UniProtKB/TrEMBL annotation:
Biased composition (Low complexity): 765-778
Superkingdom of the source species: Eukaryota
Residues spanning the membrane: 89-112, 118-141, 153-176, 182-200, 220-250, 270-289, 298-319, 331-350, 362-383
Region (Disordered): 765-785
Family: Belongs to the monovalent cation:proton antiporter 2 (CPA2) transporter (TC 2.A.37) family. CHX (TC 2.A.37.4) subfamily.
Cited Pfam families: CHX17_2nd (PF23256), CHX17_C (PF23259), Na_H_Exchanger (PF00999)
UniProt entry keywords in alphabetical sequence: Ion transport, Membrane, Potassium, Potassium transport, Transmembrane, Transmembrane helix, Transport
Location of the Cation/H+ exchanger transmembrane domain: 31-378
Protein name: Cation/H(+) antiporter 15
Cation/H(+) antiporter C-terminal domain segment(s): 575-738
């Protein structure tokens, strides 16, 4: 029932998001329908709804909404991300700005003969340069193109185009407000920008630093910021441009992400839900489709619209050879770049207010913009990547071959996770025969920004001169993994930073893992060990992220817990696997088996077997009552056959390896299992590998399940993490990818229906007489006995 409720809430959230997007998309069309192009033709309606005096109220309110909207755009825009854009995207962005501007200007002079509207070419050209960053992100994300090469280039170039469009808007206002004083308007506006960057931003940063951490921002503080928006607007208006330019610049220089998120939460719904619809109505009422063919033909107007829709594609095709972009990808990027945002309406409406765009030229370009934007969504569906075009087979370590490349997605929540993960990777036995390809994903909470942003880092490259806190952390992570790659043989690393909300973080991890064909996802535990030996929460939100990854992961997952070992050791050399049975334990053993191929590693495998008395209990008495953390059910008999088969293969293959030991403990209940595990502390193991234990029902763990503080770790993982131990070690809790469970929840397989694969042929289990010790009953752990 709780799971169904969670799914319902999630589905409702998705529906609400789509409804909001639909309202934003249809607002302009609604304004046109209310205007003289449709309902405005009815005289009675026009006199009742839009009498002449109503514009004295609507227009000032619309301009106020634009000022606030510009402030929010500046607040959400990440200029550092634009500065870090790759060379390929920069070339596409430059071509997508310069060529459309000159093309639009040329078409304008061909279409318009009125010399009084000469400067209208600036606004036509600027409108064609716009690519709506946030609109494009939503479309690409919805159609699963965001993480493809096409999506990355389109989004990165759109961010640069957005910045350039604001520059064109400033230029247009400066020239059309007073052509003779336009140089002074530009100089004074640039001076205001420098004042904000070098004086206002440091002053705001100083005030923020004086605010006690965790206290939050008072209403007076927020109101003071909004007063600064008004003041900035007044200054740029005096400079000869427009108040929204000042609001945009003021939003850009707000330094703190927490402050950005606070202001956005308080202001965005009011601006987008109440103020901006008024602006859309004003823009729509200004549009009159009947005027498009005035003193010209619809045929010529249609040609102009088609040319306007194709200029982005043309510019991308022109730059494709210089950007080393395939023609097919260039065509796709150009078509997707036609996505327009509210910014294009602001530019066109500004041109009409300044008196350089007539109702005809304004309406024609508005129609062209609507056509361009409507084309983008079908184009995105057309360019959506074919699912599973390339086979994604090695999703678990048990199914991987010994000479396969081991592809690992290492997730980093903060720099304290780095030593533990690198320690584990060093133990993973990379070699030229079986290399390790590590994809490092730094996950940063998105606060106050528009949409999810991913930044691919170039290894061993110099970072920015004045890095932010996040950039400094990224530099440390890159340096650590570069050092690991240089000191290891058969290792390749690539670092990526993903900035997203906690609710979207798990989805980003799973998409990235699938894109990179990962075999294992390593996610850090949400608690850290303190100097007092206690495990404390670093961020409770990360627990929900880890649980979602475990539920939706496209491959095997390991939750890595550090209990102080990684700080003092380079890699683990004394490893133990606690084997209770089940697919997760087999996956943990497969990983340990790979580690044991390193001659410096000593591996101990301990199998816990319920005694006959324990098995004679009624299954209901020891069946777990809380199955919330279990996501798969497994047939006990077939599962035991799989365990015996895999352990038999392991024992036969490692029988002559003196660095590998295998023991069996026959125990009566969970109390004896706890004593056995805690007594292993005397052996000073460096790394414990355990399965998460999904679907496993055992008398040795049933009691532990009821007392789990962290169900995502499983009963044994939770015991190792929450109990007190004197030695320092790390714990990896492993969950094996299960394809049948993804296809059909709760599917049950019989032993005869299991496909072992070519490399895992069925073999009879090894008997106790073949050299492996079996403990008939519990006694204090002593592997030398």
């Amino acid at each position: 029932m709780p799971r169904k409720l969670a799914l319902s809430v999630k589905t409702l959230g998705v529906l609400v998001e789509h409804v909001v997007d639909l309202v934003e998309t249809m607002s302009m069309q609604g304004g046109i329908l209310l205007g003289p192009s449709a309902l405005g033709r009815i005289t009675a309606y026009r006199r009742m709804m839009f009498p002449n005096y109503s514009f004295k109220v609507l227009e000032p309110m619309a301009h106020l909404s634009v000022v606030y909207y510009a402030f929010l755009v500046g607040l959400k825009m990440d200029v550092r991300a634009a500065m870090r854009t790759g060379q390929k995207a920069i070339k596409v962005a430059i071509a997508g700005t310069v060529i459309p501007f000159f093309f639009g200007s040329g078409v304008y002079f061909i279409f318009v003969n009125d010399k009084s509207e000469t400067f209208g070419f600036i606004f036509w050209g600027a409108a064609l340069t716009v690519t709506g960053f946030s609109v494009l992100m939503k479309i690409l994300d919805r159609n699963q193109i965001l993480h493809t090469e096409i999506g990355k280039i389109a989004v990165a170039s759109a961010l640069v185009n957005d910045l350039c469009s604001w520059g064109f808007l400033v230029l247009g206002f400066a020239i059309t407000s007073s052509p003779t004083n336009s140089p002074w308007s530009l100089i004074s506006t640039i001076a205001f920008v420098l004042l904000c960057v070098y004086y206002v931003r440091p002053a705001l940063n100083w005030i923020i630093q004086k605010t006690p951490e965790g206290q939050g921002y008072s209403e007076f503080y927020i109101c003071s910021i909004l007063t600064g928006v008004y003041l900035s607007g007044v200054i740029t208006d005096v400079c000869g441009t427009h108040p929204m330019i000042g609001a945009f610049i003021f939003g850009l220089v707000i330094p703190n992400e927490v402050l950005e998120a606070t202001i956005t939460d308080k202001l965005e719904d009011f601006v987008m839900g109440i103020l901006m619809p008024v602006y859309f109505v004003v823009c729509g009422v200004r549009t009159n489709i009947d005027f498009i063919s005035y003193n010209t033909s619809w045929w010529l107007a249609g040609v102009v619209i088609v040319l306007a829709c194709s200029v982005k594609v043309f510019s991308t095709l022109v730059i494709a050879p210089f950007a080393e972009l395939p023609i097919k990808d260039a065509f796709a990027v150009g078509l997707l770049s036609n996505a327009k945002s509210i910014m294009v309406l602001i530019i066109l409406e500004a041109g009409q207010i300044q008196g350089v765009l007539s109702t005809q030229t304004y309406s024609l370009m508005v129609v062209a913009v609507l056509v361009m934007t409507m084309v983008v969504t079908p184009a995105a569906i057309w360019f959506r990547p074919v699912q599973d075009a390339e086979p994604y087979k090695r999703r678990s370590m048990q199914k991987a071959k010994s000479d396969d490349e081991f592809r690992v997605l290492a997730c980093i929540y903060n720099t304290r996770n780095v030593p533990t993960i690198i320690n584990l990777l060093r133990t993973s036995n990379a070699s030229p025969r079986s290399p390790i390809n590590v994809f490092v994903l730094q996950l940063v909470e998105l606060m106050g920004r528009a949409t999810t942003l991913m930044v691919v880092h170039n290894s061993r490259s110099a970072g920015p001169r004045n890095p932010s806190h996040i950039e400094a952390q990224a530099d440390q992570i890159i340096a650590a993994f570069d050092n690991y790659e240089l000191r290891s043989e058969g290792v390749q690393t690539q670092a990526v930073t993903a900035r997203c909300t906690y609710t979207a973080m798990a989805n980003e991890i799973c998409i990235f893992a699938k894109e990179k064909r990962s075999t294992l996802i390593i996610i850090p535990f949400h608690k850290m060990l303190t100097l007092d030996g206690d495990m404390v929460d670093i961020n409770p939100s990360l627990q929900s992220v880890n649980e979602s990854v475990l539920e939706d992961a496209p491959c095997s997952v390991g939750i890595l817990v550090d209990r102080g070992f990684a700080e003092s050791h380079d890699h683990a050399s004394n490893i133990v696997v606690l084997y209770f049975g089940g697919p997760d334990d087999r996956e943990a053993l497969a990983y340990a088996w790979r580690m044991a191929e390193n001659t410096d590693v000593r591996l101990t495998v301990v199998r816990f077997i319920p005694s006959t008395d324990a098995l004679e209990l009624d299954p209901v008495e020891w069946e777990p009552t809380d199955k919330n953390h279990l996501s798969v059910e497994i047939d006990k008999d077939s599962n035991k056959l799989l365990d015996d088969d895999y352990l038999g293969k392991f024992k036969i293959s490692t029988k002559n390896n003196k660095s590998i030991s295998y023991y069996e403990l026959v125990l009566n209940d969970e109390e004896e299992a706890i004593k056995a595990i805690k007594s292993m502390d005397e052996q000073n193991y460096d790394l414990y590998l355990v399965g998460r234990g999904r679907g496993m029902i055992s008398p040795l763990t049933s009691g532990l399940t009821d007392w789990c503080d962290c169900p995502e770790l499983g009963p044994i993982g939770d015991l190792l993490v929450t109990s007190e131990f004197e030695s320092l070690f790390s714990v990896l809790i492993v969950q094996q990818y299960d394809n049948t469970n993804k296809m059909k929840e709760g599917s049950i397989r019989s032993a005869s229906s299991v496909n072992y694969g070519e490399e895992f042929a069925t073999r009879p289990s090894v008997s106790e007489s073949e050299g492996f010790e079996s403990f008939s009953s519990f006694k204090k752990w002593d592997p030398d006995n």
